[in-house]
Amino acid sequence: MSRQAIKAINWAALAERIPEAEKAALAAFKSKSDKYLQRMMANPEALPKIDWAYYKKVIVTPGLVDRFQKEYESLSIPYPADNYTAEIEAAKNETAKKIESFIQELNADIQEMHKGLDKLNDMIPFSEMTMDDYVDLKPDGCMQLDKVTTWPHDESTQEHNSNNEDSKESSSGH
Question: What is one term from the GO cellular component aspect held by the record (predicted)?
Answer without folding.
Answer: proton-transporting ATP synthase complex
